Amino acid sequence: xxxxxxxxxxxxxxxxxxxxxxxxAKAARLIVEAGAAGARLAVFPEAFIGGYPREHGLARRSGCxxxxxxxxxxxxxxxx
Length: 80
Prior knowledge:
By secondary structure, the protein is an alpha+beta fold. The chain has one domain. 38% of the residues lie in helices and 11% in strands. Strand 1 (7-10), helix 1 (20-36) and strand 2 form a beta-alpha-beta unit. The radius of gyration is 16 Å and the shape is elongated.
């Protein structure tokens, strides 16, 4: 194990509301960009790909029942 320093990238980006596949593609592009800038590690926000499980009740918490909530719910993954 090496103790030599390395560069890390902290990615502050929103996931793609089109769903997990689109978010994964976005993450891949951002990882390539971070690597080109010299990063050996890229850290993303919690639940960047896949969102929160449906069982977390996103629509119930937000309370608005708007189209955006429905789009976010379709992009979530079922909890095992």
